[in-house]
């Protein structure tokens, strides 16, 4: 069962079948609860096992997504071009955009942290307001922790 972060925030609960959850699903729920309560805490949690085919085959998209997950920390942002460089091909900014569009597990693989070189947020599959909220959420939590 997931509990809320604090009384000021909405409760997060898994009501049905919590006792039957597999370990990877428990890891995902723990990770998501941590993200919404204290995003920086996710760095200390194990990354849930991902079995999506996109993350299994060797490709630039996979490299970009794993690089993003591993190297761009909570409260940080990186440009498409910078992420392309981190993933091994600095001239592949458009391919990074494609990787973000095909991300099968947004929030856990934080594609909302990828922004335009101009500093503008850019697009997001969940909508630009959601992207702005996620970035703001991380920034506010990081400031509270400091």
From TrEMBL:
Gene3D superfamilies: Methylated DNA-protein cysteine methyltransferase domain (3.30.160.70), Winged helix-like DNA-binding domain superfamily/Winged helix DNA-binding domain (1.10.10.10). Its cofactor is Zn(2+). Residues 62-139 form the Methylated-DNA-[protein]-cysteine S-methyltransferase DNA binding domain. Keywords: DNA damage, DNA repair, DNA-binding, Metal-binding, Methyltransferase, Nucleus, Phosphoprotein, Transferase, Zinc. GO terms for biological process: DNA repair; methylation. Pfam families: DNA_binding_1. It catalyses: a 4-O-methyl-thymidine in DNA + L-cysteinyl-[protein] = a thymidine in DNA + S-methyl-L-cysteinyl-[protein]; a 6-O-methyl-2'-deoxyguanosine in DNA + L-cysteinyl-[protein] = S-methyl-L-cysteinyl-[protein] + a 2'-deoxyguanosine in DNA. GO terms for cellular component: nucleoplasm. Involved in the cellular defense against the biological effects of O6-methylguanine (O6-MeG) and O4-methylthymine (O4-MeT) in DNA. Repairs the methylated nucleobase in DNA by stoichiometrically transferring the methyl group to a cysteine residue in the enzyme. This is a suicide reaction: the enzyme is irreversibly inactivated. This is Methylated-DNA--protein-cysteine methyltransferase.
């Amino acid at each position: 069962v997931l509990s809320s972060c604090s009384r000021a925030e909405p409760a997060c609960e898994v009501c049905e079948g919590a006792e039957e959850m597999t370990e990877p699903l428990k890891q995902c729920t723990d990770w998501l609860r941590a993200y919404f309560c204290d995003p920086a805490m996710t760095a200390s949690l194990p990354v849930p096992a991902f079995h999506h085919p996109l993350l299994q085959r060797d490709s630039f998209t996979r490299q970009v997504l794993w690089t993003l997950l591993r190297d761009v920390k909570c409260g940080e942002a990186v440009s498409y071009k910078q992420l392309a460089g981190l993933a091994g091909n600095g001239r592949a900014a458009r391919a990074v955009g494609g990787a973000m569009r095909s991300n099968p597990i947004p929030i856990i693989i934080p594609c909302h942290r990828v922004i335009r070189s101009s500093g503008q947020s850019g697009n997001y599959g969940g909508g630009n307001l959601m992207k702005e909220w996620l970035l703001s959420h991380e920034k506010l939590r990081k400031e509270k922790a400091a």
